[in-house]
From TrEMBL:
<feature type="domain" description="ABC transporter">
    <location>
        <begin position="6"/>
        <end position="237"/>
    </location>
</feature>
<keyword id="KW-0813">Transport</keyword>
<dbReference type="InterPro" id="IPR012340">
    <property type="entry name" value="NA-bd_OB-fold"/>
</dbReference>
<keyword id="KW-0547">Nucleotide-binding</keyword>
<dbReference type="InterPro" id="IPR050093">
    <property type="entry name" value="ABC_SmlMolc_Importer"/>
</dbReference>
<dbReference type="Pfam" id="PF00005">
    <property type="entry name" value="ABC_tran"/>
</dbReference>
<dbReference type="Pfam" id="PF08402">
    <property type="entry name" value="TOBE_2"/>
</dbReference>
<dbReference type="GO" id="GO:0016887">
    <property type="term" value="F:ATP hydrolysis activity"/>
</dbReference>
<dbReference type="InterPro" id="IPR003439">
    <property type="entry name" value="ABC_transporter-like_ATP-bd"/>
</dbReference>
<keyword id="KW-0472">Membrane</keyword>
<dbReference type="InterPro" id="IPR027417">
    <property type="entry name" value="P-loop_NTPase"/>
</dbReference>
<dbReference type="GO" id="GO:0015594">
    <property type="term" value="F:ABC-type putrescine transporter activity"/>
</dbReference>
<dbReference type="InterPro" id="IPR017871">
    <property type="entry name" value="ABC_transporter-like_CS"/>
</dbReference>
<dbReference type="GO" id="GO:0043190">
    <property type="term" value="C:ATP-binding cassette (ABC) transporter complex"/>
</dbReference>
<dbReference type="InterPro" id="IPR013611">
    <property type="entry name" value="Transp-assoc_OB_typ2"/>
</dbReference>
<keyword id="KW-0067">ATP-binding</keyword>
<dbReference type="InterPro" id="IPR003593">
    <property type="entry name" value="AAA+_ATPase"/>
</dbReference>
Amino acid sequence: MAETIIRFENVTKQFDNDPPVLDNVSFEIEKGKFYTLLGPSGCGKTTILRLIAGFLEASDGKIFLNDKVINEIPANKRPVNTVFQDYALFPHLNVFENVAFGLRIKKMKKDVIQQKVVEALRFVNLAGYEKREITEMSGGQRQRVAIARAIVNEPEVILLDEPLSALDLKLRTEMQYELRDLQRRLGITFIFVTHDQEEALAMSDEIFVLNKGEIQQSGTPIDIYDEPINRFVADFIGESNIVSGKMIQDFEVEFVERRFECVDQGFNPNEVVEVIIRPEDLEITTEEKGNLRVTVDWVLFRGVHYEIGCIDEDGNEWLVHSTKKAKIGEKLGLAFDPEAIHVMRLGETEEEFDARLESYEEA
Ligand SMILES: Nc1ncnc2c1ncn2[C@@H]1O[C@H](COP(=O)(O)OP(=O)(O)O)[C@@H](O)[C@H]1O
Ligand SMILES: [Mg+2]
């Protein structure tokens, strides 16, 4: 078992008399991994980071770092550094002085500061930029200065609050790669915040999906993508076709008024469920061979694949990702395997969901 570095135990955060921003949140963060808090704007991501950093106090519950309660420990005494969304660099200081700032406050010796700053800048590929003014640096370079300023303090945890959201797509992709690589080289725990699901899937060891101050699901990118716990997660992580259905019996589910073989079990007979099929799991075929008969409504070319919007005989929409082209108005069949059908129980908690998946594996 990996060591736990941060633990939230029933943490609630409420401002004034507003409804809680975080409601009884519990989770564990293991040492040395790349974690992502993923969720829509306003769901409480920044609040969690600020509680860890010590910029906010929990209204209730306990926050542990290395098994010690840190609720009362001031921010500057926590071995945690934050990279802010807008970087919060000092525009009047050059690159070296920005990175050195925290070390100077700690009154470290000049030659030690010199050595640490140079090393941190080398780590983020900015060797030789010491004398540059911040205003002369590009967006990506400023990002790296902000990271150097965090790592120079040798924290145990680095918190990153949507640090890539201001960058254009190409630079953003490069920085995703750089950050991931940096985390591996440093081996320290990163807690990264984003509202971008693709970014979360690409970068993380573990993702926490948040909605309205609650963790909906936690797991590896593959777990969360393949086995979303509910409609919110399925919808937020990747594109999905979600329809309501009925679990007739083990391995048989009904939706769009037809019955299909599936791999799910352990539901009550005729239990109302939600059914997901990912767009890449729908295969275009002839009307005769398909599980569903559809008419093509729209087509978008996405480079590697086509995105194809189809309507079935009952008027349900189906999104298909395919390398095959289709024509608007064309009548097609959509085929899928039993494994492509993912059945979700309504209102299931993460614990119940995990227990159900485990029982499949045992069966
Ligand atoms: N200082 C504050 N006072 C009152 N409400 C706040 C304060 N900070 C955040 N909130 C509220 O808490 C909720 C979550 O905010 P935040 O954690 O910043 O969300 P996210 O980072 O996921 O976008 C929002 O509804 C926000 O308005
Ligand atoms: Mg935020």
